[in-house]
User: What shape does this take?
Amino acid sequence: MSLINLLPHREERRKRARQHYFVVAGGTVVVGVLIVGLMHAFYAAKIESQNDRNRFLKNEIVKLDKDIAEIKKLRDEIQALLARKQVIETLQADRAQTVHLLDELVRQTPDGVYLKAVTQKGLRVNLLGYAQSNARVSTLMRNIESSPWLEAPELVEVRAAQVDKRRVSEFNMNLSLKRVSSKDDGGKGAAAKGAKDAGKAPAKAPEKKG
Assistant: This one.
């Protein structure tokens, strides 16, 4: 009976199996590296594209911030101009208030009352003075209420005092000036002028002697 040696054949199979394993493993590694490289390149391109978008957005935001700062500056200038306009309009409306105040105080102050101090802050006026009696103070308040330029008389204090050895009533009073537009002021001035002109008698022509 002849003996057959199978050892070289088995060794050859093992060798081929190892070679196949290394080839498959190497191919797998190569394919994996290629896949990783492709994925890395893909996501790197995505990240770069997003970075470009972010840079674009940052630049646009910087431009918008400059525009917003410019708009805010313009708004501040507009507000300042409007405030100046309001001040000018207020001064224009109140330019004759002091004249009306003094004129009305002269007109509305009754006999037996005289003022020692007049203080004005805006449309508010404070009067300090003396009156022969409390009734004179009441008359002054009624006159102020009926005045076309004065309103809201408010008696702060009235007390007895001595002036030149005479007993008088010392009073402290607040009142307000009526804010009247320049148009209304002009209308009242024209009406007053018309009434004044109407009150004047027409001049008579000189008579001829026969």
Notes: The chain has four helices and four strands.
